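ok so I'm stuck.
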Amino acid sequence: MTVGRTLTDQAPAPNIAAGDGPHYRMFVRDLVLASSIGAHAHERGASQRVRINVDLRIRESPAPLGDSLANVLSYEDIVSGIRALIAEGHINLVETLAEKIARMCLADRRVARAVVRVEKLDIYTDATSVGIEIARRQPAEAAANVLPLGPTGGG
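replied:
not stuck anymore, here's the structure
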């Protein structure tokens, strides 16, 4: 080993799939929606409150933002997408809802990582909430083919 190694000799190459390199975080906190969710018979046909938190690690584009919504992932699109998933109908498991939300977020290849928490708020009188949290990453092959920023369709 030589003493004169440079910093670049020591630093590993960025892992694009892990979201290394320039990025920003976008989040949705404490989105509370009425949902038809639950595996038990008494949970079918009745809505209950769920709280959803989403934390996304988004790869930055080298292109300038231009102060334009068209050049970023819109949190409005994420919230609208979550509402649409819940409106599709009954879901048995909070795990299923979390997976659907993560897949929706990762459909945009700029999203390197999605952490999704889904909590049921009205299950126990002596607990604020029960639920799960998952973390999912963009598949490596999709991350290698990141498209340039363009219109997201949101406002």
